[in-house]
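Form 7-S
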Amino acid sequence: VQLVESGGGLVQSGASLRLSCVASGFTSDYYAIGWFRQAPGKGREGVSCITVQEGVTRYADSVKGRFTISREHAKNTVYLQMNSLKPEDTAVYYCTCDTTYGSQYWGQGTQVTVSS
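Output:
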């Protein structure tokens, strides 16, 4: 499994960004794909995830109503649309994949910086 993230950058508070995660094939072994983030000096935080087959989504309370996760099977891609960004959203965002056989894979991460 390979996960490649893109779409991070430096934006001002209130702006939007869309992160993309391209997976090396949406197979029946993939259960869910999600996003974690890690801010400087803090632990990793689960942001959002989506089940590959059913499209069931979950969000952290801190991003509900601002972030939207979606998937596009044809492009083997999961997106994280981030609106109304805040300085506290600044972090490295990692794409993750959970398989039906209990393994978890991580991408290399993409930096999101929100200035006030």
